[in-house]
Specification:
homodimer; alpha+beta; Alpha-Beta Plaits; 2 domains; ten-stranded mixed sheet; 22% helix; 31% strand
């Protein structure tokens, strides 16, 4: 049999999982996919992957890969997995790639966060968007988001327990889209620290409520102190949208 | 205290409920709302309502009402309910109405049905749309839907166990919208028989797959025999959108 490398694009609703990464004793997306692959190939398969999403975070385009002696085409791998996966996980695409391909070596990543600002809680958005009933000052939020663009030390917006070697990241773009009561904030960067987007969104929502001013973001970034920034937005509003490679 | 009548517009995700209507020993949307109101008013409140949605069917605009000696404004009723209801039910609006108002006396009702025709199952549409992977012939589906418009005897498209006095209904409009892989079929009529929309959609999807021809619908309607028509589409793709009154 031939040694083959596969790249997979994976979509999942994060609600029922303790995040992406394998952990003993709990359901994780990585764990479920690795178990199915290990059964298929009758040997232990370990995935390489692009992003370690937290418990409750969703994905439209997680990327993972593996290398293995295989008789299967990419399409066969996709079908084998999709027919066995639970309904809240789907393999959107599989392709055979060069064995050098490393999902961790992303060039850019895009995440978005959904805020539901409707007067009444929308039952169809449970676990899908952060409902914050307080009227938000959107122009202040937009002004605040400007301060996060560019190459900066984001340590004040990093969750504790991260093993990151550097806390410098570059955000290339932040875009805001509104549809009805839902505000979608899209972030594209070369990478994001642990809970960085949720901490940015939590802070920006507090700015929308008037707790901080937009220009306070500059002080927060300079302080390098997590305690100066705002709350952490809930995981269930966050979506890993897409990972870009060279 | 004053005798007041209230009209409520209710949205719910039907997934966790055995339908709208109160039934002993199971969770129903009507049961949950009646229990909260009965506790609030310290007396048994029975709702009148527009539509008895089946188990798993969703609603954006169910209408229900009640009359009761009350010191509460409409806004207070809404707040009392929304703070206590489970997250998958929301009261979108409450207004005080004439005691003559009867939610059952609707002039028109609009339901829609969502079909997901994507190549890959979308995890975010579990229990929200009917995934039918088979490539559907959409022009045949549109042609078939034309036969359902107008005033007709829909007995061949009625689920068993209905107590309807007449099986004649009038469908004023059927519209189809497409967005990405999702097809939304919207039905507006003076009323619908038990499972009538699900039976129409099931038949139309089978026409899309080539099992029947569009013109077969005419024969099915004339046969007055449920067995001549197609399958019943799953409940979870159906949404009660809006109830109209004079």
């Amino acid at each position: 049999m031939e040694l083959k490398s596969y790249k997979m694009i994976i979509s999942y609703v994060g609600t029922e999982y303790c995040g992406w990464q394998v952990q003993a004793g709990v359901a994780t997306v990585q764990g479920i996919i690795e178990n199915l692959l290990s059964r298929t190939f009758d040997k232990r398969i370990i995935l390489r992957y692009a992003s370690r999403t937290d418990s409750g975070v969703h994905a439209l385009g997680q990327v993972a890969g593996f290398t293995c002696e295989s008789k299967f085409t990419a399409m066969e791998i996709q079908r084998i997995l999709n027919t066995q996966l639970p309904q809240d996980i789907a393999i959107k695409a599989v392709e055979e790639v060069d064995p050098e391909f490393d999902p961790r070596k992303a060039k850019r990543k895009t995440y978005f966060y959904l805020i539901d600002n409707g007067e009444i809680r929308d039952p169809f958005k449970i676990n899908r968007a952060w409902w914050t009933r307080h009227r938000l000052n959107k122009s202040n939020m937009l002004a605040a988001l400007e301060y996060f663009k560019g190459k900066k030390d984001f340590i004040a917006f990093m969750g504790s327990g991260s093993g990151a070697k550097t806390t410098i990241r570059e955000i290339y773009d932040i875009s805001v889209f509104e549809k009805g009561d839902v505000m979608k904030i899209s972030f594209t960067g070369n990478g994001f620290l642990k809970q960085m987007i949720r901490n940015i969104v939590g802070t920006v929502v507090e700015i929308g409520k008037g707790r901080f001013k937009p220009e306070d973001v500059e002080k927060m970034l300079k302080s390098r102190d997590r305690r100066t920034a705002g709350i952490t937005a809930p995981a269930y509003g966050l979506y890993l949208e897409r990972i870009y490679y060279e």
